[in-house]
Amino acid sequence: MRSKIVAGNWKMNKNMTETEALLAELSAKLPDSDAEVMVAPTFVNLAVSVRNLEHSTIEVIAQNMHFAESGAYTGEISADMLLDIGVDTAIIGHSERRAYFGETDEILAKKVTTALGKNIRVIFCFGEELEDRKSDQHFSVVESQLKNALFSLEASAWNHIVLAYEPVWAIGTGETASPEQAQEMHAFIRKTITEAYDAATANKVSILYGGSVKPGNAEEIFSKPDVDGGLIGGASLVADDFVAIIKSI
Ligand code: PEP
User: Fold this and answer.
1) Is the pLDDT score of 161 beyond 90?
2) What is the pLDDT of residue 23?
3) Over the chain, what HEC string results?
């Protein structure tokens, strides 16, 4: 049985006061759910978030991490630093990291290897751009993103990987993939993992959808058989919206 997950990526939003206020509101309104609920505040607010959620089932996760153990990497955060404050899940490969910070498949493969070596669970993001979809390249783009960053891993590594399919054209645009488009791609992803590994490996991986998920569209997207939850950007910054999305799963 795959985990259902709803994760909120807060990106570069919310100062410490706002972070604590949003966490308190979320904790108070959190519905009973089978889903794992996660939030990814900015790095400077991770430690305070872990402390604030000490008695909550909401998990605090990181938006990114570096592949090196330590050293001369100004501005970066290591796996050990995350573990030290009680964070053991990291988003890796978000399209904004790829687009604005030059994170290539090769860099992401190194990050994934480091994270797994440290027992950090990875939420690995990938997805095609609009031109890829328009030119009918979306399946091959997604396949190569997975292959380049993940398919050298041993099968056992997949116990610690969650996938987040996020078509770039749907992130923060208000335009979302239709539930059918999401299901079609998620089924393709599972087939691709089956071919590279085996069906057992493919069937145990949670595959989240991300891209303008809102209270109004979450239920239909989550109802698809290969969609195991969502990575939520904008709507995770508003407690009532995030709670409504959690209720939809
Ligand atoms: C994201 O950034 O991962 C995301 C899905 O954003 P949004 O929900 O705002 O499209």
Assistant:
1) yes
2) 98
3) CCCCEEEEECCCCCCHHHHHHHHHHHHHHCCCCCCEEEEECCHHHHHHHHHHCCCCCCEECECCCCCCCCCCCCCCCCHHHHHHCCCCEEEECCHHHHHHHCCCHHHHHHHHHHHHHCCCEEEEEECCCHHHHHCCCHHHHHHHHHHHHHCCCCHHHHHHEEEEECCHHHCCCCCCCCHHHHHHHHHHHHHHHHHHCCHHHHHHCCEEEECCCCHHHHHHHHCCCCCCEEEECHHHHCHHHHHHHHHCC
* Pocket of ligand 1 from Cβ distances under 6 Å: 9, 166, 171-172, 210-213, 231-235
For the whole model, what pTM was predicted? 0.97
pLDDT per position as a tens digit, 217-234 = 999 999 999 999 999 999
Q: Whose CA is nearest to atom 1 of ligand 1?
A: 233
Catalytic residue among 94, 96, 138, 186: 94
To the query of whether residue 166 is one of the catalytic residues in this protein, the response is yes
189-228 pLDDT per residue, tens: 999 999 999 999 999 999 999 999 999 999 999 999 999 9
